[in-house]
């Protein structure tokens, strides 16, 4: 991961090599000015979702007139910026270099238990013939597994969906509690549908430990959100 000094976003070097792609993961709370004052993004139309911790995927093939509900977007259109807002949840950005498709996904534990990222990859494959093995994916800053305590309900929701529970560890001190590795759970879903682990890049920052980043667990309603984006210029 690279963070240029003075930058508001961290970037994945492998994705920076793609000439038609822009992307970034916010490294502090989002302010509208940060976004509007960027020359890099001035030609792009931002697309936000009304995020609801679902597995609803919006395929954007024309510019939406109103805010769409859901937790993932896929597009092949240039000059759109797919934007995900998070505070502890995992933002995932995906690109298919040869088919020129991009996706952005919001993965909290609920979306992860509904396999949202897995469904996005399946949809890219079914609709556009993307090969999972040639997709590149970037996992942004999220709450780290050492800080992410969850209860039995979360564990059981994974069990009920027939998902692996390998990303849960018994809490060392608290009975009936687990530490949940959100990043690992999503990585394993991606690999299970053919994404290659070597093509998944990760920003190893825990939002809960990093005071500049918004953390809902730490700051509750005062947390604010950070913003991650991906788009294509041609
Ligand atoms: Zn942490």
UniProtKB/TrEMBL annotation:
GO terms for molecular function: copper ion binding; hydrolase activity; S-methyl-5-thioadenosine phosphorylase activity. InterPro entries: Cu_polyphenol_OxRdtase, Cu_polyphenol_OxRdtase_sf, Cytotoxic_necrot_fac-like_cat. It catalyses: adenosine + phosphate = alpha-D-ribose 1-phosphate + adenine; S-methyl-5'-thioadenosine + phosphate = 5-(methylsulfanyl)-alpha-D-ribose 1-phosphate + adenine; adenosine + H2O + H(+) = inosine + NH4(+); inosine + phosphate = alpha-D-ribose 1-phosphate + hypoxanthine. Keywords: Hydrolase, Metal-binding, Transferase, Zinc. Pfam families: Cu-oxidase_4 (PF02578). Belongs to the purine nucleoside phosphorylase YfiH/LACC1 family. This is Purine nucleoside phosphorylase. It comes from marine sediment metagenome.
